[in-house]
Amino acid sequence: MYNISTFTVTHDRDLYAFIKLSESFRKFCKNYKSHVVALDTHLQDCENSLRYFKEEGVEYILDKEAEKIPHGHIRQQYIKFNSDKYVSDDTDWICHVDSNCVFFESHDASTTYFFEGKPVMEYEEISTLKDQNPSVVDWAKLTSNILKLPDTIYLDFSRRKPLIYPKWLFVEIRDWFLKNYGISFLDYCRTTDQISEYNILGTYCWYYHRYLYHWVDINKEGVRYIPLLQKSNSIQCAELENISEMLVAFPEVHLKAKSIFQARSQNKHIDYRDGSYNSFYNQVLFFLYPEFCKNN
Amino acid sequence: MKIYTYYQNLDESSSSKKHEQEIQLIELWKNSWSRQGFTPIVLNLNDAKKNSLFNFLDENIRNLHFEITGDHIQEYGMSCWYRWLAYGVQADEKFYVSDYDAINVNFKPIEPIDELHFMDSDCPFFASGTPTQFNLLAYSFINFTNIRKTFLSKQEMDWYHDQEFFTFNLVNESNPNSKIFNDKLNCKFTRVRPDIGDYYDPKMDLSDYKVLHVASSNINQIKSSNSDFEKEDSGELRIKIIQSILNKLS
After folding, report:
1. Burial status of residue A254 (CB atoms within 10 A of its CB: 0-12, 13-18, 19 or more)
2. A123 pairs with which residues across the strands?
3. Do residues A97 and A7 lie in contact, with contact meaning Cβ atoms separated by under 8 Å?
4. Residue B199, min C-alpha distance to chain A (Å)
């Protein structure tokens, strides 16, 4: 029904994480048009990835223009802003999946990201986030400045992955930079050292294409269930890394945990970033694979 | 200090000549280790089946072997993988494991190092570790093989057993990205020959060795270089040679 491709930018430091994402994609993702991998090539940063991709026949794209951008994190965001150039021609929607994510349950791309005919965009109000994470205020100001908004955006669009955008949006945003800054988006990225791609994309759509999405404030309406886990850089990172690997290796443990949890809980929401659900999952894992779990 | 080995009778008839030779070989293995102060213990398929990873490993290895080689794996091949599961359900904290053709000539019972340790590089005939480490290894057999299966399937292997797992995935020569895997597994590979892992050479002085690897190929090598042994049954010759080694030590 919807023509969706995924797009991932990776580099050597994320190689193992990317391998796990690829494995999860092979296991769990159905009806995607393509899974495009972009390799951030810069100096010696991608030798291990190139070798692995060659050995395993992983298809990837290189964005030669991006190499002109000095900062790695900006370069990778620039490549994402050009994702429309690399997905298959029959793609209408691009689902951006960072390499520190894994899918963990079979799902159909066409029914996962849409509600009543519109893609879902989740957001949180800055006011609810700022105590826990003060940097969101700075990101909101930065995003608003970049997009030349009259007021500072009061929403954050970057925290719930994966995020899905229409293919044409990337062309439009690059044109917007050209019109509003008088330089190409590439030149803009060469001279900046801070940008938040998902906030730029989300905020741009909030201002200029509000009709496009089904908008969800997750603190009021709750989060939707998408079988994807992102390892954040938070204190939970090591635990999430371990769980994400187990989710890919032992898919039956997730299904068992989910069915037990939903059968006996009023709150049927499955979220692996929630510590209490993690503990429950670990109990089921321990029950099914006791020797493996003892100290691993 | 305990040392474990693993034996699975793959012959239909328990009275077959091969089975009898294997039993004799295991007795010689026990003898060589106990005389150096070790407690040798033989594990079997029932021990491996106690490990909750058994079905996970069994199903995945069979599928991966077919994908990589184009052939179904034989039961001998499966036993090479199962043994690590049997080690993974032992209660001891740290211990040694070996093939039953690892003959202890002069290796004393010292405390194993903290890492999972393969003492003859990618040949897994002699190792040490904890049950947790062996279970992580068993999981890694599947995890790493899945990651490398396209590359592995291009290697035109007749079989893919644990030896090939180590050689093609964890050694830098065949996998320049092996560090990524070794970091996950936290294992150490060493090779100090002739001390550990060398084949037996009748011309050598036994004091040069600590643990000999009297593998079938070692016997074939001895047979081809010595016309006196040329017509002997390899299984019987192996037993004779090991017996003579142990006699020299006593």
Report:
1. buried
2. A217
3. yes
4. 34
